[in-house]
Specification:
alpha/beta; FAD/NAD(P)-binding domain; 22 strands
Amino acid sequence: MTMIDARKLDTNTVIEADLCIIGAGAAGISIACELAGKGIRIALIEAGDREYDRASQSLYSGYNVGLPTDPPTASRIRVLGGSTTAWAGQCGTLNRDDFEVRPWVPYSGWPFSLESLRPYYQRAQTFMEFGPDEIAWTAVDDRPVLRLQDNVLEPKMFRFCETTDFRVLHRERVERAENIVTYLNANVVGIEQSESGCRVTGLRVRTLEGRGHIFRANAFVLAAGGLENIRLMLSSNREAGGIGNDADIVGRFFMDHPFVYSGVVHFNEPAMEKNAHVNEGYDRLSSMHWRMAAIQFAEDWLRNEQLVNCAVHFLRRPAFKTTKEYNSRAGVSLNALFQALRAGFPVGPHWSRHIRRAVKGSRTIAKSRVAQLGHLVRPRSALALRVTLENTPDPASRVYLTSHADKLGIPLLAVDWRIGEIERRSLNRFHQVLGDAMIAAGLGSIELRFEEDDTGWPSSLSSGKHHMGGTRMHSDRKQGVVNTDCRVHGIDNLFVAGSSVFPTGGYANPTFTIIALSIKLADHLRRKLS
């Protein structure tokens, strides 16, 4: 693979290719790998460099105006390999009902079934180098899978890939491909269309140093991430409201995975803490266990109760991080302030609220800090309940452009993340069912430790940094941005790859599904461009 630094090209260089892929993260690299050596000239355009650069990362600045979530600068990585460079490596498929129309979930349903995507999931397993059958175990090493209430709760298996960084995982495969040229420090600042608007004719690219270039190709793939895909579409052809935005859908139906640390689990027998649902090293990249099981609602029961998908993992954490004080409103706000200062990004409109909460809850914080100091003297751990919820699609949950711009003149994003009432009902029911099932099975009990925020959610609520929706897939152009082939409606040669095309997102981490969809798209592009 040839790598070219766009900063070293002569100004106004014109690059010709058969296919331009914008973004060298999970989606972009997956497509490039699938087309390696296929005779299709590929320009892989990456805004970042080989290594992290703060100036480049600052172009991801944005605003959070909805539920508390990390700003783009803290949730996306602008570097070769994209956010796989900071990914925990957890791989799991979506569930069958995630693809189906559920009458109690508005706007639900994909234009194809799980069975249609299953062959691509199998290829994705090989792509991640853990074999075609390793998502479907019934046991996890020698660790037992908990059998709780049949037909109500069931295990769901996940695999952790050993190498998470795509710069490392697929370097040799891409470097051998003579048909791929990667351009670094190349920021796409505009997508040009034909006069009729039915084709993309080129990309305008600029470096932070001000050098501009033009990329031309027969086909283009937006694979810049769950937020940047939206930003590029909205900021290009703004006179028409953005590219592919005839129905005012680009940026809408934004989803993330709500994470809630809601308490702890107590097992009657200490040996049971070595079960398949316990993760001993989730805070690190990848895991101490290469396989793990979640506990989720059974599909039929979920349908009868008309709830959304959710699941729990038991995460080993320092005991002080599982206390009600640590996960209180004051504790969460203080931690948010510390994280913002350490990372060098602003908390945004929530800054003053975090300060007020921290000051008001000073006694609670003091108690939490005493427990933290005690941990230094006598380290103790506990098994935290971390519940992950499906986020239902909502057109009011959206990402949109602001009047502020980055150093290249591209408008910054505002993220208005929203969660519906059905998610709250599903969380409450899950706690109830899990607690009853643990007692009925004689395994132990759960202890809920949280206080509610002023939003009515547990104050420990956070986002999974799993940006989905915004360029959703639907066969009807009035209800979606891309079709079944991930092609933008009304544009012959523009495709979108990544989680922004998800109509719904289940609760599983999206990266594995991103890879499967990217392989599917690569097959389509091979037929189209050959």
